[in-house]
Every structure is written in structure tokens, then in C-alpha cells.
Amino acid sequence: MDLISLVKAGELSAFKKVYAKFHEKLYFFVLKQTNSAYLAEEVVQLTFIKLWERREQLSDDYLLSVQVFRIARTVMIDELRKQTTIRKGMENILAEQKEEPVTPLAESITYKEALASIDKAIEYLPPKRREIFKLSRYEGYSHKKIAELLSISPKTVENQISQALKQLRENISDPLAIVLLIFIC
After folding, report:
1. Angle, CA 30 vertex, CA 140 and CA 123 arms, to 5°
2. Per-residue DSSP letter, 147
3. What is the pTM of this model?
4. Could you tell me the fold of the domain covering 109-184?
5. Environment class of residue 157 by beta-carbon count within 10 Å: exposed (0-12), middle (13-18) or buried (19+)?
6. What architecture (CATH level 2) is domain 3-83?
């Protein structure tokens, strides 16, 4: 049985292997995005809690790394939203205490708008690069599988994905969209 099947079956030793394999990568990724060690630890813990609670829903069709990072992406967005809500609540309380009007925070781009921004930037990629990127990041195919499907070398796949990421980072200016892009990638 592969690792996904073992985790789905509730094998604690397999889950521990998944934790050992991904917890550090997730931690440093979230830390880099948020500059908050506390938030990074919180996101990692919540990611693995959700992974265990929803282990039966894991798909054999996608790489485990894709599934773990998708859960982490959702958790991070939820935690950032909670922080924004708390911050706004505190601003309202402080404003009421001072009896001054609250200056609302500038509205940040919504999740859907951020995804639309990413999709728009992806459409500007050269056709072959776009196809390779989508197969890798949206469909969860490995470099080897993409190479087989498109009759190209795995190194070409790797180079095209690297170039796609570089181009997308250059063309996306919204910070939330960049965070989402990194989680997709």
C-alpha cells in the first residue's frame, strides 16, 4: 500500500511519516509569507489536524504534497482572515472608546479576485508553458507523467514550470494572489 492509502486507512505510523516529510516545509513556507512564527506554527498544526480528520477524503489521483499544501493554503487564508477580523474588531472598540470615527482599513483583494488574478496571469503564459503548468499545479501530475503525456523530457517540464513561476511572480502584484500562487505551486 502507498502512503496515501495507509493514511486513509488510519495508520498512525504512515501519518507520522507524512508529518515528518512536510511539517518543516510548511512551517518555513508560511513563515516566509507571514513573517510570523506563531502563525506558521498554528497553520502547520491545524493543517495536520485537518489532514487527519479528513484522511478518508484523500485522493489517490493527486500527489500527497499537492493535497497537504492545499489544506495548508486554506488554513492560512482562514487564519489571515481571522486576524483581519480581530484587527477590525479591535479598531472598532478603540474608535468607540475615543469617540472618533473609525477609518476603515483599505479592502484587500478577495479570495476570488486573487484567484482570478492568478488565472489571468496564467493565460498570458506561452501555450505550451501554460499547459505544463496547469497539468502540474492544477491536475497534480508529476514531472515524469507530464513528460510522458507531452513526449518531452522531465528536465524540460521542470524548466518550463520554473519559467512559468518566474513569469507569474513578475506579473502578479497583489500580495494575497502571490501567497495563493505559492500554495498552488
Report:
1. 45
2. H
3. 0.48
4. Arc Repressor Mutant, subunit A (1.10.10)
5. buried
6. Orthogonal Bundle (1.10)
**Alpha carbon separation from 46 to 37, 52, 80, 108 (Å, rounded):** 14, 10, 13, 24
Sequential pLDDT tens for the chain (185 residues): 788 899 989 989 999 999 999 999 999 988 888 888 888 999 999 999 999 999 999 888 889 889 998 999 899 888 888 877 777 766 766 666 565 444 333 344 466 777 788 888 889 999 999 999 888 887 888 889 999 999 999 999 999 988 988 888 888 877 777 776 766 55
How far, in Å, CA of 62 to CA of 140, rounded?
5
Domain boundaries of the chain, sorted by first residue: 3-83, 109-184
What span, in angstroms and rounded, lies between the C-alpha atoms of 175 and 13? 37
